[in-house]
Amino acid sequence: MSRPLRSALPALLLAPAWLLGSALVVRLLPSDPAGWLYVNNNGAANSVRAFTVGRDGSLTSMPGSPFATLGAGGTGGFTTFPSARPTLARKDSFLFATNIGDGSISVFSIGLDGTLRPLTGSPIRVTEAQGTPAPLEGLAVSPRDPFLFAASATGKIRLLHIGATGTLIQAATPATLVAGRPEDLAVSPMAASWRWHPVCSRE
Question: Does the predicted model carry a pTM greater than 0.90?
Answer without folding.
Answer: no
